[in-house]
Amino acid sequence: xxxxxxxxxxxxxxxxxxxxxxSGVLLLGAFAFGCLCFWRKKAAPAGRDNELPLRATKLxxxxxxxxxxxxxxxxxxxxxxxxxxxxxxxxxxATDNFAADSKIGQGGFGPVYLGRLEDGQEVAVKRLSRKxxxxxxxxxxEVKLIAKLQHRNLVRLLGCCIDGxxxxxxxxxxxxxxxxxxxxxxxxxxxxxxxxxxxxxxxGIARGLLYLHEDSRLRIIHRDMxxxxxxxxxxxxxxxxxxxxxxxxxxxxxxxxxxxxxxxYGYMSPEYAMDxxxxxxxxxxxxxxxxxxxxxxxxxxxxxxxxxxxNLLGYAxxxxxxxxxVELLDEAMVGSSxxxxxxxxxxxxxxxxxxxxxxxxxxxxxxxxMLATENATLPxxxxxxGNIGRSTSDGELSQTQSELTVTATDTR
Length: 412
Hints:
This protein has a six-stranded mixed beta sheet, sandwiched between helices. A three-stranded antiparallel beta sheet has the order 14-17-16, with no helix packed on it. Strands 1-2 form a two-stranded antiparallel ribbon. The chain folds into two domains: 63-172, Phosphorylase Kinase, domain 1 (2-Layer Sandwich), CATH 3.30.200; 180-409, Transferase(Phosphotransferase) domain 1 (Transferase(Phosphotransferase), domain 1). The radius of gyration is 29 Å and the shape is elongated. Helix 6 (195-215) runs antiparallel to helix 11 (364-372). With 412 residues, the protein is an alpha+beta fold. The chain starts with a helix and ends with a strand. Strand 10 (230-232) and strand 11 form a beta hairpin. The chain is built from eleven helices and 17 strands. Residues 42-78 and 390-412 have low confidence and may be disordered. It has helices spanning 2-43, 88-94, 135-146, 180-183, 187-191, 195-215, 270-275, 280-296, 312-321, 340-353, 364-372; strands spanning 63-64, 67-68, 84-85, 103-106, 111-116, 122-127, 157-163, 166-172, 219-221, 230-232, 238-240, 247-249, 255-257, 260-264, 277-279, 396-400, 403-409. 36% of the residues lie in helices and 17% in strands. It comes from Triticum turgidum subsp. durum.
């Protein structure tokens, strides 16, 4: 019994010794690792303490009725968004802490800043305003839709930043700002857009909408097409932007209805503005308005002819019937080289797009073909939809950068 007891004591002592030895090794390793980290931090270049590298990661988002879930998981593999996630520190460094002189725009979503990343790349950072009533939903919607879309005439989303209450979208920077700064600028600014450039911009917007409506794996209705939502790159190539209120149609769906009409007066189709019904034909109506504005250099909403009591659509229709449509051409282009047959074709296409009845408006595939075919025989347009006389507005209006955006809620 005494020998057995001694053996047990020896075994216990051995176990204790082994545990102590292993613990000592682990403690020594932890100490060495801590010293190594401290040494590396001390050896880092000065001025880089507050900079964090970009993290390239697959942002896992789950689509449901409430938007993106906190679990950051996907409901299906096809919803995987291979999107770059930027650290907040990188965005702050790129925009100089959102300095006032870095601000390049303001929209319903929030302010837009010019940023320069560590590698020199210039980006546009859209920062969600905490005062934005629909900003969170627009942020979710834009990430969900545009991250899956790739086309020469769509602005490219580079990534996003989600940090606490901060929500930001990072886009490629467009050096020539938005189309409205040229079309609705002073005469010298408008002269920079010769007819050839204007026609190429019209055709580019049409190709972008064709992709959204018919050629992408999604069917997207933009719902807020206007010049301020078309950006221009170094070569004046148009890029459709701002998908915050866009909607995706699935399967054989062709129309949808909403109780909450959100858009911009002067561009909304009659059926959408009055009844909340939207479809591809709603975007096509907006496109028609834009074409007339690009041709004339005048806003539909701001234009009024006292003699005929007509807005821009009604005035264009009247001149078209009288065979004088070329008189609509922007005064800033008078005397410059201009293809008048091309101008007349664009005006005719625009009038087809702003038809009162959605069923009469052409599809984007037909529009692209009509614009590209010089000798095509086009249908005769009907009287345009919308108010022909002085424009009036009902509902709740909010003014942003001299634009009137309506949100009208129907309690039906």
